[in-house]
Amino acid sequence: MSIEELTALLGGWKGYTLGTVGRVEPGQHGPTLPEVHLELHPVRDHPRVCSGCGKTCRSIHDTAERWVDDLPIFDAMTRLLVHRVRVACPDCGPKVEKLDWLEPYARVTTRMARSVAQLCRVLPIKHVADYFGLNWKTVKKIDKAWLTRTLGPVDLDGVTKLAMDEFAIQKGHRYATVVIDPNCKRVLWVGRGRSREEVRPFFELLGPERCKRIVAVAMDMNAAYDLEVREHCPNAEVVYDLFHVVAKYGREVVDRVRVDEANKVKDDKPARKVIKGSRWLLLRNADNIEKEQDRIRLAELLKANRKLAAVYVLKDDLKELWFYRHVGYAKQFWDEWYGRAIRSRIDPLKRFAGKLKGYLPGILSHCRFPLNTSVLEGINNKIKVIKRMAYGYRDDAYFFLKIRQAFPGVGR
Predict the structure, then answer these.
(1) What percent of the chain lies above the pLDDT cut of 90?
(2) Orientation angle between helical segments 136-151 and 396-406, nearest 10 degrees
(3) Same domain, residue pair 56 and 76
(4) Nearest CA-CA partner of 322 in 336, 333, 338
(5) What is the pTM of this model?
């Protein structure tokens, strides 16, 4: 087998040919893993391309030695000693040549960078670094550069509907906002914070013309999101999500009534313990209670406590509002539910109903645009997994790129 055939078999380092070959075993003063060292010399008379202007150059200005990491060969890490060419470009002057297999100033080959980035999709950076024998910072830099190049700017053309939600980015009530296209489940934008000023860059990126094409935006009852959408998207209807409304009902009504009722029987410790320990039974959907024992406990609790029974029944009834597709019928159902809530004489329920009345237009919009943020809840769960894999991210830009990579969109 000739040197040219061996070079093509091992790596296909176009424009270069194999020189000396050596192997270095791990030792006290050597590498921690076995290494194969390959020397690559430029092929004489090979046409070379200027990395500045892209023109073919015949003249070589000089060469410089550079160590580059490549994919492992069998049981050993591969290190290339490349005699890197600088061409004498008539337009650009001395320039590093452009190679398909090596970026101008990279310390790893393109195929190794691709392999590192592929493994980073499923493994923590530390594990990838250990596998390839690279520094943690090197792996992160490779993956970030690869994501930036492959993902590119987000395509916002053709987007007509949005869904917005927040997720915890760090401890201490620090949040970020994610915006998706609910039609194809694609992440369009991620930014730190949840205030108007912090979500405004997305609408600036969207631009006035594309903002006019937005017809509906699903969200929770976040005033900052609401106001920003109304300012930038004049033709959009705000659609409030069932999940967040019911979650808010659970916090402000069910929990409050449960605590108040438990305090009323504080001298009766068994009864107080039953009420205090019923939180998840009251918040869960009846269909999701699988154990017969739990169903019996819930039935006995509701039979024994009128107020808890009332807020539990009204919680389930409230969900029905999101299944209507005719605004008139939905409004009629709301009026009936609101009347029952006000007549209940349960103060937390009356306060919640009064506040929810101001959000009614966004709730009724669900009849015309049956959007919800359930997709976002799934995305938020995956974001937590991505964050845990890295034990948290200090680099927001890198973290947000990882989120975009995880959700490129269905059918894209």
Answers:
(1) 50
(2) 50
(3) yes
(4) 333
(5) 0.79
